[in-house]
Amino acid sequence: MRDGPIRVVLVDDHPVYRDGLAALLDSGDGIAVVGTAGDGREALAVVAAARPDVVVMDVQMPVMDGVEATRRITASTPGTGVVVLTMSEEDETLFLAIQAGARGYLLKGANQAQIVQAISAVAQGGVIFGPALARRIADFFAAGPARTGGLDEPFPQLTPREREVLDLVAAGRSNSQIASTLYLAPKTVRNNVSAIFAKLHVADRAEAIVRARDAGLGR
C-alpha cells in the first residue's frame, strides 16, 4: 500500500498545457504535482530536488529534449519512472524514448483517466503504452532485425528533422540556404541548429560539422 499520493513532476515547454494538466491532476485523489519544468535541463534540476515517483515528459523542447532528459533522469534517479506524453507518433521517437528508459508513452490526445492510469502503473513499477502504440511495438519486434536499421543511424538523440538539418550544416550550407532547401522558416532552422548543438554538446558550427562529417553526414 502506497503511503501518500504519487509525487509527479510535469515537463512541457507549453505553459498553458503544463499548468492545465497540473491543475487537472491535482484536482483528483492520489496524485500530487510536486514540480514543473519547461525544458529538459530544467527538469533535471527539478527532479533532483523533488525526487518524484513519476515524471510526465514532453519530447520536443528547447535546450534539452525529452529523450535526453529521460536518459539522464533514469540513469541518475532510477527510482523515478518516466511517462512520455507527446504529440509525436513517429516510430523513431517512440523507440528512442523506450531506449532512454521511459516506461510509459502516451499521445497528447489521451484523456485524464488514461494519463492517471499511466502514472499509477509506472509508479507501481509497471510499463504502459497506448493500445495503438503497443501494437506498433509488437509489430516492430515481430518483424525482426530488418526493421531496426533506423535506430543505428548516427546521432540517435536527434529527431529526423534535426538530422536532416545537420546533414546540410555538414555540407556547408548556411541557415538561410537550409531554410530554402527544406522549405522552413529561418527561425525554425535556428531553433533546430541550437537543439543540435545542445544534444551533441558542441560549442559552435565548426565543431558540429567535424562531428557530423566524422559520422558520414554532409557528403
Automatic annotation (TrEMBL):
SUPFAM superfamilies: C-terminal effector domain of the bipartite response regulators, CheY-like. The modification 4-aspartylphosphate is found at residue 58. GO terms for biological process: phosphorelay signal transduction system; regulation of DNA-templated transcription. Residues 7-123 form the Response regulatory domain. The keyword DNA-binding applies. The keyword 4Fe-4S does not apply. Residues 151-216 form the HTH luxR-type domain. InterPro entries: CheY-like_superfamily (IPR011006), NreC/VraR/RcsB-like_REC (IPR058245), Sig_transdc_resp-reg_C-effctor (IPR016032), Sig_transdc_resp-reg_receiver (IPR001789), Tscrpt_reg_LuxR_C (IPR000792), WalR-like (IPR039420). PROSITE patterns: HTH_LUXR_1, HTH_LUXR_2, RESPONSE_REGULATORY. One of its GO terms (molecular function) is DNA binding. Keywords: DNA-binding, Phosphoprotein, Transcription, Transcription regulation. Pfam families: GerE (PF00196), Response_reg (PF00072). This is LuxR family transcriptional regulator.
